[in-house]
Amino acid sequence: MNMFKAFVFDFDGTLAELNIDFTFMKESIISLAKGYGVAHESLGNLLILELIDAVREEISREAPSRSAVFYREAHHLIEEIELEAARRSVLLSGTLSLLSTLKKQGRSIGIITRNCHAALTLVFPQIEDYCDVLLSRDHTEKVKPHPDHLLRTLRLLDTAPDRAVMVGDHPLDIGLGRRVGTYTIGVLTGNSSADALAASGAHRVLNCAVDILDFIS
């Protein structure tokens, strides 16, 4: 693993405790959408940010101004849930040691997340001191699993995909890394099982992100 120049990390469930209730968040957005006259069973199959975009697009066909109001309300709602979760979250054991060691070794560090920037800084106020690139959803138009989220990070890190590692706790992270062409590491500190991470294509599955230090020098 010493060949890799850059490590890109997911945040919640990878570097910090995962406290967000995504089921409640999605149910809340679906309930809000119903208030705007949009109710499809298929909405439950979408990721939350994509769900918001789909509802906004449907509302905009008949009432563009109402679609903008829905979009603001929906994002305010999910940000409140994220901030509440952040107030109850802490960095996972070993996170600071991991990031500090990688930087001392001259490796580049990126952090990408679908979470909002304010929630990240609540959990980790010094986050930008420990990474070279930080792209929350506030900093990119296309969030993961869209490849652009990771590709843009690698461009900013001046690192080719085959010299980088994507580290995450969810099959979404692993799938993203595989599509872009990075090495992928799944960690078991979120809600995903080792089998699920392996099935998504993880090159390696570790108990936690700090275990990466066992494989580099």
What does this structure look like?
With 217 residues, the protein is α/β, with parallel strands linked by helices. It has eight helices and six strands. It has helices spanning 22-35, 48-60, 64-87, 95-104, 117-123, 147-156, 171-180, 194-199; strands at residues 6-9, 108-112, 133-135, 164-168, 183-187, 204-206. It has a six-stranded parallel beta sheet, with helices on both faces. Helix 5 (117-123) links the parallel strand 2 (108-112) and strand 3 (133-135). Helix 1 packs antiparallel against helix 3 (64-87) and helix 2 (48-60) runs antiparallel to helix 3. The N and C termini lie close together (9 Å). The model has no long low-confidence stretch (mean pLDDT 96).
Return residue spans where pLDDT drops below 50 for at least 5 consecutive residues.
none
Percentage of β-strand residues: 5-15%
Query: What is the chain-wise order of helices and strands?
Result: EHHHHEHEHEHEHE
| Overall geometry | elongated
Radius of gyration: 18 Å
Report, as a whole number of angstroms, the end-to-end distance.
9 Å
Number of strands: 6
Q: Going across the major beta sheet, what is the strand order?
A: 3-2-1-4-5-6
Please identify the structural class as seen in this structure.
Answer: alpha/beta
Oligomer classification: single chain
Helix count equals 8
Major beta-sheet overview: 6 strands, parallel
Helix content: 40-55%
| pLDDT averaged residue by residue | 96
